Give the backbone structure.
Amino acid sequence: MGKGDRRTRRGKVARGTFGKSRPKAETLRKDKATAAKAAAEAAAPAQG
């Protein structure tokens, strides 16, 4: 498992690709925003 392995982070860096083991920065930002929104909805009491 080194630079030739497509599934590892080092392999992704060597190839210049992205995926599960090396997500793009914009994907990380979207995930954080989604998680924050879900946490805010869970913390707020339901109105109705």
The radius of gyration is 17 Å. The chain has a mean pLDDT of 84.
